[in-house]
Amino acid sequence: MLRLAAGVEQPTLTRSIRLALLFVGLCLIAWLVWRADPHVVARMILRLGWRFGLVVIVYTCYVIVRAAALQRTVIGVRPRFSDVLRIRLSAEAVEWLTFTGPFLSEPAQGWLLTERGVSPFAAFAAVVTEYLLYSASSSILAIPAMALLLSRYAIGEMRTAAALIVLLMTTYLCALAFASISGIGLIAPSLRRLAVVFGRRAERAATQFEPIEHLVIVFLHERRRRLAEVMALEAAAQLVLILELWIIMAALTLSRSLIDAATIEGGVKFVAAVFVLVPGQVGASETVYAWLARAIGLSAAAGVSFALVRRLRGFVVAIAALVVLAAEKGPRRAGSA
User: Fold this and answer.
1) 274 vs 242, more confident
2) 21: Cβ–Cβ under 8 A, 6 or more apart, which residues?
3) Residue 26 in contact with residue 282, Cβ under 8 Å?
4) Where are the alpha helices (DSSP H) in the chain?
5) 317 contacts 60 by C-beta, under 8 angstroms
């Protein structure tokens, strides 16, 4: 039952499709780099120099802030922050090194929380709550960014897509606000309605997810102070990402405008949701970064460079997390022996 709630099990067909999408994404990255000129992209990335270390440090701060948010969403026995930080670092390693994105990294956090004494339903409810609130903060950033693109920049054929993204994210925020104010869950009832089409599978999923959603609603509806704390932390996480992108843009001497950095950061927020089946959003992220860079007056090569630098720093943080976690496990095992 918990495996279903965590979403860990994936059909073979889904894995095959994701592998195919990963291959297509890698080909798309190669095409984007070739079209933008590999020498130009390489020069831009190398121009970052020592500031790449600063980018890694800033992203690590983002991971720490998300860990603090996750700790505060746990109802009942709250684990130590150091343990939650290790869990968050483990999730980063899973997300970046397996190309599975939230499909595996988010459930992994739930499993690891249960090992820290949190009850299974409370663990997965905490992960779901943190992810929902992070998505809410992403939407709050993305809506004005898309509105700015629509009003100030010539985005041509992408106007309809940008307007649709604003509509979908506004709908998401309204649904989350409704659940928080009314104390009524929306996911389990929606799954039950899908039972008409998908039969017992949807009904079973609704029944098994209902206890988790109940705890999510309890947090949103009854824990108002902690809800405000988590939203503040998620907002801080978004600001850290804007700062990171600003450092990259300034280091490449492309733009020193925080508004440009916030516009691009807000503009890429929909990628994870729209291209959720694409492993690691490989190719999709690079394409959107290139489009957004051109929309604000930069080159497509700049956008591809932004995406590749961020992908590289993600791998560096993930590998560093694995090394740190492995080094900590060694002495613990020796001590227990």
Assistant:
1) 242
2) 277, 278, 279, 282
3) yes
4) 2-6, 12-36, 38-47, 51-72, 81-98, 102-114, 120-152, 159-182, 187-198, 200-222, 224-251, 258-267, 271-274, 284-295, 300-336
5) yes
Q: What are phi and psi of 155, to 5 degrees?
A: -105, 5
Q: What's the token pair of residue 189?
A: 């009832």
Q: CA 32 to CA 306: how far, in whole Å?
A: 13
Enumerate residues 6+ apart whose C-beta is below 8 A from 300.
Answer: 32, 35, 36, 290, 291, 293, 294
pLDDT (mean) for 166-171: 92
Q: Token pair 């932390």 is at which residue?
A: 233
Long-range pairs for 33-40 at CB < 8 Å and ≥24 separation? 33/304, 35/300, 36/290, 36/299, 36/300, 36/301, 36/304, 37/301, 40/299, 40/301
Q: How far apart are CA 77 and CA 123, in angstroms?
A: 10
Highest mean pLDDT among 15-19, 105-109, 155-159, 218-222: 218-222
Distances (CA, A) of 42 to 36, 45, 46, 259, 284: 10, 5, 6, 26, 20
Q: Residue 247 and residue 212: Cα distance in Å, rounded?
A: 39
Per mean pLDDT, which range of 40-54, 175-189, 272-286 is the poorest?
272-286
Any idea what DSSP says for residue 284? H
In whole angstroms, give the CA distance from residue 264 to residue 258. 10
**What does the longest C-alpha to C-alpha distance in the chain come to?**
65
Please give the Cα distance from 91 to 82 (Å, whole number). 14
